[in-house]
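pasting for the record
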Amino acid sequence: MFLPTMLRAVAISAFLTALPVSAAETASPATTPLLADKANFTLPFYLFNGHILIDGAVNGRQGKLMFDTGTEFPFFLNNHYLPLAKDLKIGEGQAASGQKMVLYKQQNPIKTIDLAGQIQLNNLTAVLHTDWSFIEQAYTPYFLGSIGHGFNRQYLFVIDYEAQTIAFHAFNQSKTLPASVIDPARVAATFEFTPTGVDGKMPEVVLRIGNKTVKASFDTGNLGSLELTEAMKNELIASGELILTPRTYTYGLREPHESANLKGLNYGPQALQDARNLTFKIGKTNQLGLGYHFLKNYISVWDYQNSRLTLLRP
């Protein structure tokens, strides 16, 4: 059975590691800017189990796209729902929940991709696709695919989970753009992040918990996760900064697991909201994934051009 808590768009690196150089280059995110005809626009979204779904249409066929900052491709489409040609096989891999996935590209461009009736992109070339039928079963039979870093990196974008909107502002405007979007009186924290992952898709920072540190990455496709060494787990439990709770159900499914709440997070002098309802596992590193359960407490401003992520108080 497919488990929603396992849902990630896909571990894309699994497709690329075993490919010859020419094929890997074909599957890499496009370097050509992918800009809409509007410099500023807002996309309303739905929340489903903490994931962002946006109304859209591909070549006129309507459905929903998942907005996932952790996927490097501009668009990664679903060939189970969309009639896409399998002209070129790029590689194979598997989703985090174990499903085998084969990555394809069709030779003909995608004529149109419409996003929430607000913008339309035309004649998109080299768009990749795979069989997302397992997500159809869990979320919607009209799943079009995902929107990722290759698209959103061209914009300063603002995610408001309460209003359920993402506002996009193209970087090819005034150099004062960030200042015009960010109200200094509402700033809760400003992260100067290190771009990690393929094409710098994953913002990473070092956070403090008391006198200890943990690497944290931000990703809208990750509801919230925590990996700790056994030693760090014991230290944090002893200090009262980590609470582990056994749970039986997750998002409507029986899925026994251990949930973690992490207290006392700081970034320099800036105190942060507790990270709650994190999936937990023991591992070899100390790594915190901050997604929906953390970001919903703020309005988040993502600026890949300046490697900066700002959290605003609602």
